[in-house]
Each structure stands twice: as C-alpha cells, then as structure tokens.
Amino acid sequence: MPFSLNKRGEATIQKGVNITKSPIEELEAKGKAAKAASRRMAYLPSEVKNNALRNIASDLLAKKNRILTANQTDYREGETQGMGTAMLDRLMLSTDRLESMAQDVLAVAALPDPVGEVFDMRTLPNGLQLGRKRVPLGVIGAIYESRPNVTIDISALCLKSGNAIILRGGKEAVHSNNALAKVVQEAIARAEVPDGAVQFIENTDRTLVNHLLKMGGIIDLIIPRGGAGLIKFVTENAAMPVVSGGIGVCHTYIDRSADLNKAVAIAFNAKVQRPTVCNALDTLLVHADIAERYLPLVAAEWAKAGVEMHCDERALDILKPQPSLKLVPAIDKDWGKEFLSLAAAIKVVDSLDEALEHIERYGSGHSEAIVTEEYEAAMRFLNEVDAACVYVNASTRFTDGSQFGLGAEVGISTQKLHARGPLGLKELTTYKWIIFGSGQVRP
Amino acid sequence: MPFSLNKRGEATIQKGVNITKSPIEELEAKGKAAKAASRRMAYLPSEVKNNALRNIASDLLAKKNRILTANQTDYREGETQGMGTAMLDRLMLSTDRLESMAQDVLAVAALPDPVGEVFDMRTLPNGLQLGRKRVPLGVIGAIYESRPNVTIDISALCLKSGNAIILRGGKEAVHSNNALAKVVQEAIARAEVPDGAVQFIENTDRTLVNHLLKMGGIIDLIIPRGGAGLIKFVTENAAMPVVSGGIGVCHTYIDRSADLNKAVAIAFNAKVQRPTVCNALDTLLVHADIAERYLPLVAAEWAKAGVEMHCDERALDILKPQPSLKLVPAIDKDWGKEFLSLAAAIKVVDSLDEALEHIERYGSGHSEAIVTEEYEAAMRFLNEVDAACVYVNASTRFTDGSQFGLGAEVGISTQKLHARGPLGLKELTTYKWIIFGSGQVRP
What we know:
The structure is a homodimer. The first copy, chain A, is an alpha/beta fold. The first copy, chain A, folds into two domains: 19-237, Aldehyde Dehydrogenase, Chain A, domain 1 (3-Layer(aba) Sandwich), CATH 3.40.605; 250-403, 3-Layer(aba) Sandwich (Aldehyde Dehydrogenase, Chain A, domain 2), CATH 3.40.309.10. The first copy, chain A, contains 14 helices and 19 strands. The first copy, chain A, has helices at residues 23-41, 46-62, 64-80, 85-91, 95-110, 149-160, 174-190, 206-213, 228-237, 260-272, 288-304, 313-319, 352-362, 375-384; strands at residues 3-5, 11-15, 18-19, 118-123, 129-136, 139-144, 164-168, 198-200, 221-225, 250-254, 281-287, 308-311, 326-329, 343-349, 367-371, 389-394, 411-413, 421-423, 429-440. In chain A, the strands form five sheets. In chain A, strands 13-12-14-11-10-15-16 form a seven-stranded parallel sheet, with helices on both faces. In chain A, strands 8-7-6-9 form a four-stranded parallel sheet, sandwiched between helices. A three-stranded antiparallel sheet of chain A has the order 1-2-3, with no helix packed on it. In chain A, a hairpin with a 7-residue loop joins strand 17 and strand 18 (421-423). In chain A, helix 3 (64-80) runs antiparallel to helix 7. Chains A and B meet through strand 5, helix 10, helix 14, strand 16 and strand 19 of A and strand 5, helix 10, helix 14, strand 16 and strand 19 of B. Strand 19 (429-440) of chain A pairs parallel with strand 16 (389-394) of chain B, so a sheet runs across the interface.
C-alpha cells in the first residue's frame, strides 16, 4: 500500500482516492459528526431513544461472543503486563456481567424522558407567553478508565437525555470498549438515532486527550470517570465545563442525644458496607457526653470487620481498655483524609458547634450525617452544613443516583454550580427559554 | 509613623500594636471574612435580608451628599484624563439616579426569597424522606467597570439570594464605588446581616484581580460585568466558575408567511430601540418569497432611524432602487458580527432550513426570533434553534431579567451549564440534598 507524508508531515496511506486522516483530523471529524447529530438528538421522540436502548440491551447478549473475545484480548494483555487481580477483575466481562449491563440499559429505557419538560411557563402582562424548556446539553465527552461497562452506562444515559457522546476509554480496555461501542452504534442505527450520536476514540495516544479537552466549541461537558489523577488532569486542562465527583471526605456526627443502636448501625454501615467508595465514612465525630457509652460499642463492631481506628487522645483513652481493637493515634493528616479502605478517624467533640466547625474545615462537601434524637440539633445540622447531601439518622452510603430514585447516575458532583450530588438524567440537560409572541415589541 | 519591612519584605506601618497588612493579605482577609459571613447568610431569615435592603434604599438618599461628593472626585479625574462624554455620563451620579437606584433596591426587597424552597421532596420505599433545598452559592465575586450603580445592583441581588459578595469595581469609579460600598456596609450592619457579607476592594492594582481569580477555595462564582476585554480576561484566568454574558449575535428570521406589519415592527424594535446592547438585532434573514415585498418596507423604517444595512447580493438588488437607504455590500465578517450600533446585516434565504443553518453557524446562542404565521415553521424554529432564548413573533429585545418577570438580573448567560439567559435571584443559588432518616442503612 503506498505510504507518504502529506504537506503537514502527517502519515497518509493512499488507497485509491481515500486519504487516511491524521489522528487529530479524525478526532475533529468525530467531534463534528457528534455535534451535527446532537442537533437532531435534541428533539428525537422518546420512543426512538427507548427503542435504541432496548436494541442495545438485546445486542449485548446477541453479540456477546464478539464482546467476550475482545475482552479476552484485553484480559490477556493485562495479565502479560502484570496487572493486579483487582484491576483484572474490574476489566473482566462475562455473560453474567453482560446480562447485568443489559438490565441496567433497560432500566434507563424505563425512566421518564427528561427532555421536553416545559416549566415556569406563564403569560406576561403584554401577552407574551414564556417558559423554560428542558433540552439536552449537546455533546458530552467521557474520559474513563478500566471498567468497560462505563462505555454502556454513559452511552445509555447520554442517549436517553438526548445528548451525543464522544467516548474515550482507557488503553487497558480498548478492545472491549471498541467492541461495546460498535454494538451501541449498530443498535442505535437500527432505531434511527442520527448517525454520529455515539463516537468512540480507538486511538489511545495521550496527546489526543489533550486535543479533546481543547474542543470547547464542540463539547459542552466533559465527564471524567476514574482515579484522582485522571480527574485532576481533566479538570485542570479542559477548556469546557467539567463535572466530576472529586473526593468524598464524609463525617458522621454522633450527637449527645443519639439513639445508641441507630448510631452503631449507621456508623457500621457507613464505614463497612463498601469502604472503597466516595460516600463511605471517613471521620466519626462523637459528642463527649455520649462517647464513653457509644465508642466501645461501635469500636467492637468495627473491629469485627477489621476497621483500623485513628483516634484522637480522648477517644484513645476511652477505647484503650479493649485489647482486640486496631487503634492508632490520629495524626493531623487523618482529619480530612479520604481513607477508601477499612480505616476511619475518630474524634471526641464537646458540642454540636465543634462538630459543625470540624466538618466546615475538613469536609469535601460530599455527604455528612448527624445521628440525634434532638429536633433542634437535627435542624441546625441540616441548615448549617454546606454539602451536596446532608443526612439525619441515616448512612451516608445512600448518596447514589439509584438509591435516590434518579434511576442511574453518571457521577456525584461536589461542585455547587449546575448540579450537586448524584447526577442523573435531568442533570445531563439544560433549558432554553421559549417565547410565544403575537407581534410584541419592547416599549 | 514608624515604617519597616517585615520578614516577607512587605511594607508595614507600625501604629501601636497594629501592623498594616500587605494588599494581598488584606484581600485574603476580606475573602475569609466573606466566607465566614456566607455560612450565616445561608440561613438568614428573609425579613433580615429585606430590612437590610430597605436600609440601603433609604441610606442612598440620606447619605447622598457623601456619595455625590465622592462621585464628583471621580468625575473630575475622568475629565482631567480626557474621558469621553459617553463614559463620563455612565460614571455620573445625581439625586435622580440615586433615587432610581433606591427604587431598584426596593424592587429586589419586594421579590420572593429564592432561598429555602424545598423541591423534589419524596419518601423512598425504605422510609427515607429526601428532597432538594435551595441554598445560596456562598461567596460571589464581582469584577466590573465604570457604572457605579453596579455596586448597588449586585450587592442587592447577592444579599437577597443569601450570598456574601466581594466587589471589585473599576479604577475610574473607585471613589464612588467606595462610598456606595460603605453605605451598603453601614446599612446592612443595622439590619444584623453578618459582618463581612459585603466586601469592597479599594486597591485598584491589577495584580490583585489576578490574585482574586485564584481564590477558588473562597469564591464560588465570579461575575464579570464590562467590556469584552474584561470578560475574556476573567474567563481565561479564573480558577472558579464564571458566569458571563459573552456576546449576543442575534438573528431575526422573516418567514415566507410572516405578517408584514408584525415583521416590520419587530425588526425595527429589535434593531433600533436600543442598538448598543447584546439583545439587539444583528442579522435579518428574509425568506426569498417575501423579500421583495418586505425588504423595502423595513428598510424605509430603518433608514429613518439611520440604520446602515450590510446587504447580501439579493437584498442589495431589491433595495438598490431606494436612494435614501444607507446600503453597504455585506462582507464575510458581517455574518456573526455583533454590531452594537445602528447597523445590521441582511441576507435573503431560500428556506427555513437555510435560516436555521445560518443561525446554527453564526449565532452566539443568545436570542433568536422567527416571524411567521405558519404553525409548523414556528414549532420547528422553537425546537431546532439552540439558543438561550428563542422567540416566535416578538422582538429579541425582551431578553432581560425584569422583562421576563425575574425582577432583576446580574447578567445574561450564553453558556449551557447552570443557567441560561437572564440570571435572576434563583440563578444565584444552588441546592443541597436534605435527607430525613430514622436509622436507615444501605443493604
């Protein structure tokens, strides 16, 4: 096949009249195709979008051999490159996992369509009728790592919310992601969703990510999904808005009036039920009046689950007599630390005010809880804590799109603008003002 | 007065035990004070905020001598430095202008409080009750130029929406702004609004703006108000979210079925009623079927107002026979140009589709209008145009917070995230999830 460099020094392969594009040109072409598709996506009937989603769900099973073969290639490469067991497990697909992904897609299809809702509609004294109409954001870029199911998850949520999507998955899952993206593209084409609505970037060259992050005129929102490094890189380099979870430093405060049983169950669940996620408990704050009764109870339960406890001096004094506990004296860095493991910091405070100040200083604005039987303490905590999700007498582990009844989520936002907490379908939309006139002019 | 450099090389003036802070330290202290105040502002009763606003309104008149004296200093300096008449007029305050500012503040006091509204509240199957509660954003930074009334406007809107504010006005109005900010600070103190809720940066050194734009942990939102240069600088350098109007390239499309009287009145109003603002008409698109009847009518009206018409070839052919018109052949740069003056581009198109494509390509997502008597054309335009405000049979000049019934506005957003179009009180808020439990843990 003839091979040459074009004027700009890019490699081209001459194959009849086709000239192969450079990776950057290809990326830009994908961006333009997504943008063009997004215009039609904006007013696509729900039924078309739901048919597309149902096609994806059935194709995930009908085409499972193709997907699993691609996944085995990634898996073998991962093994060869010495990928750890946890990572390999996250990478692996199976019939069961594909079935569960298909179920999730059907669940998204069953959700109400967020697009088209008209709200705040009213008639002004001059006869103008105006209101806000919910519309898709446009083109969403997703940059993600490792788990191939994100390809399906995000595609389903973006399709349902009428957005076009540009997917850029990690190198380690490129064959799986590519196979999954093709399944999506074939499935939506049969449903007459506009061509170009789902774009996948096969090329895993890092420079393409940099270029993608500068395509501000094309991409309306970037969603990074992955580790802290990826999120930081995207946030610092994107020319367009980014919605990312950031970190979750979550406190549970046991007030002096707390019900001891609830307080033990809530702290246990918040720390132990899934310690590696952002809504898990990091610091337990305990009112001094209840600490001597409460701490030995929760510590005994935590110890059974293997929780390492980083205690301030007063907590240490109370817990020292229990020989079976994994106690560590807390250091300064333990306050405000996201443990993401079976470890927690414990601090005894003298008042609700001290707890509020601690949360204000060290919290990351994610999820904060109080356990109390006092009405006034509950209301003050709800009013005064500035976080995406503020709980009374419940586990912070509930911060999740499907637990909140949003059906599904693309992430959890700790920023204040646009959307806070779990990001569901509605949070992938914006609105435009629509104005029905009959010849009005401004006096 | 003893004068020395401290360890960090900053000038300090020793005056008893007081050590003067460096400008940067002072700015940071103001930021911290605003942040601290914002926590209490979040749950301040509406009545306290409204009392503060009423105090501001009455003090603007009671303390008018102090304000006008400061304004005269700015005015004289402006004159000395050769400031143009238009700029001087924008700078000037008078008893009338103060009275009108006071009226605006009272109007904000009369608006409903956006804070505290609870919405989407529901009870989940597990008994958790959850919903979203509207809360202030926190600390808002405003960077603005020239018109001193912005000091009062933005202070009033931020106070009403429960936000603390850091004001940084332009050098040319520094005495006026300082006097107005002091009036605000004194007025709100009497109403028991937390100290520190309104901060004013007297020092007009540009490096302080750079520092302000990096205070991402303190300031939740920056609002630039001024020329394109200021907005660009702020957008490119801010470490926190920015809401800015950007430019308004507004099209009015006259469909083949348009009512000629409405079409003339709307285009005239959109271009002439106030040509220097972002929602004024820039390009008139006219369907070929109606162009020969419509264009001479609108052009004659525009000519009376002195509008210069940048016409494409077809429009030029139609209008040439009218000798009294200011006609200019359109150049490429006229499409997508924000004229901000008595000038407009005119293009004849063959179809609604061509008009939609032109708007898609050249519009800035601000305000777009169609004039039509055909239902289907109206609905397609409303559906397919992607802009903050889309009109049928009305002038784009209505894009304005008070025209839309939002009471007041801090600006008009052409971005898609968070808020689109006129930004009123509600758009200066966010929400947090509040969750009332009774001991629930996640299974």
